[in-house]
Amino acid sequence: MIESRAATRLGENVKLLTFVSIFFLPLSFCMALWSINDMFSMSSLAIVTPLVGLSTYIIVFNINSLVYAFHFCHRVLSANTIAAMELDSSETWRKRATAFAKFKTRSRPREKPSDWRLLQYVVTRPWRLLSRRKAVESGNMQDVEKPGLSTQSTGLSYYSRE
Asked: Mind listing the pLDDT tens digit of every residue in the chain (162 residues)?
């Protein structure tokens, strides 16, 4: 019982210390910045310090809402990216989309596919589309069909093969 009270008191002290540091951290940042630089005036310090402090307090006191918002955005963007991967002409990307879809079901595999694959898909897709479009416009389909660069292995094609 005594240990429980001591732990609670310690937790309250840590909470108080955290609030004090949240108050002084933005102020010390602004003061350090203004002390090493002579280009800024005191009036700009008077404007920037409350803005930095206020933005810090808003972020800290709404951290749960911000985490929820970022998690929601991540889920929506991931779902849209996986849907685009499922429709991609590349067999590799379709297989990866299937792996992500399997993870979302109740019978989850041991390891979730890496979210870095989603970022890789989003970053490489415009390049693949541009490469395919240039090859189609130039009429030089050999550039797209070279071994190692085939549309089936790398997904250079956005257009369906008909």
From this structure: 888 889 999 999 998 888 888 888 888 888 888 888 777 788 888 888 889 888 888 888 888 898 999 999 999 999 999 999 999 888 989 998 888 887 765 555 567 788 888 999 999 999 888 888 888 888 766 555 443 344 444 443 333 333
Residues 85, 121 contacting (CB under 8 angstroms): yes
76-89: b or e for each residue (b if 16 or more CB lie within 10 Å)?
eeeeebbebbeebb
In a domain, 160, yes or no: no
For helices 63-87 and 116-138, give the axis angle rounded to 10 degrees.
Answer: 40
Among candidate residues 119, 127, 114, the one with its CA nearest the CA of residue 154 = 127
Examine the domain organization and report whether 25 and 41 are in the same domain: yes
Domain span holding position 33 = 2-61
| Whether 84 and 48 share a structural domain | no
Task: Tell me whether residue 161 is in a domain.
Answer: no
